[in-house]
Design brief:
The chain folds into two domains: 228 residues, P-loop containing nucleotide triphosphate hydrolases (Rossmann fold, 3-Layer(aba) Sandwich), CATH 3.40.50; 46 residues, 2-Layer Sandwich (Alpha-Beta Plaits), CATH 3.30.70. It contains nine helices and eleven strands. By secondary structure, it is of the alpha/beta class.
Length: 294
Amino acid sequence: MRALAVLSGKGGTGKTSVTAALASLLAPILTVDCDVDAANLGLLLPGPEGPGVPAAAGLSVRVERDACNGCLRCVEVCRFGAVRMLDGRALIDAARCEGCTACAISCPVGAIELSTRVAGQYWVRETAHGPLVHAELEVGRDNSGHVVSILLQRARQLAAERANDLALLDGPPGIGCPVHATLSGATAVLLVAEASRFGLHDVERALAVSRPFTERLGLVVNRADLWPEGTRQLERLAASQGMDLVARLPFDRRVPELLARRQLLLELDGPMRSGLELTAEWARGALRAEQGAA
């Protein structure tokens, strides 16, 4: 599967809006919403939803209290403070437990049981531009990186079934575990940055994380006309780091109203549409280059 990951280093840069527009311009294409903590790509890509599938991530730990002999070995080996004693028997605090299995391995009487933990659900939606794979975490679950990996595995299956190996990955904000999981499935990366005092820092963080995964890197500057000096700083960074400066998208007051109606940025003519078309052309070239390398 040849995939373009769209990342930002932070939230609110317009990453998902750009991804949805690219899905239309590059159709038919598979899209994956890798922001499983707050998935919203589906708001812009409607369509009939398939059945929900449990996303198993990590392990649940339970003590069989009648079998526990109160030896405290599990308390000693737990690095997360997830085991405490109650009436002389061990008890697991599920909110603290990381499922590392150290307690189960060390228990001399086999009183600790392990089972698969369901972190959330995922769906495959049939949109006008191709299938969308997206998920929702259960409340309190923190296995978002693992769930992203499950989504990418399902996406690869769909790509093989439909003989279309092109994919768009709408990455999560920041640089944490789910971003790393997203990058593991990427052959090219498009960074979306805003022309603000924070934009340069955000791109530097995202670039540092992305570079080990791929050398095919592009930059889109969103709201580029709000602070021209910030845009120039981003352009200088792109030049110094070997990133392609793909497009500059303008600030447009109509965007919030457009998105509230669940419409794509392509509804806006002029510099916005032409910038998105340039971005789609760069994406085609980056993914074709990967095919040639293979």
